[in-house]
Design brief:
The protein has a single domain, classed as 2-Layer Sandwich (Alpha-D-Glucose-1,6-Bisphosphate, Chain A, domain 4). The chain is about 30% helix and about 40% strand. It has a four-stranded antiparallel β-sheet with strand order 1-2-3-4, with no helix packed on it. The chain is globular and about 40 Å long. The N and C termini lie far apart (about 35 Å).
Length: about 80
Amino acid sequence: MVMGGAFAEASAPARLRSFRKFDSDWTDGTTRVSPDFCEQDDGTQLTLTVLYASKEAGDGAATSGMTGGMEHDYARLDEILSGLR
């Protein structure tokens, strides 16, 4: 899968908004991605919001199985980052 896009907002250290478009456009248009970083006593909480161009595209993403992959990737990132403290 190939995607491209542009950053819409960069407000360090808390916010980074972007627009993404995939080469095989199963999303019906541009996808808006908004990660927000919030400091916690024991680290940083990441809240990732993804807004698809249509309800159908969002429903398709939710049932694609990608959430399992994302959970795996973020758990691995937690492992790597915890080793840097």
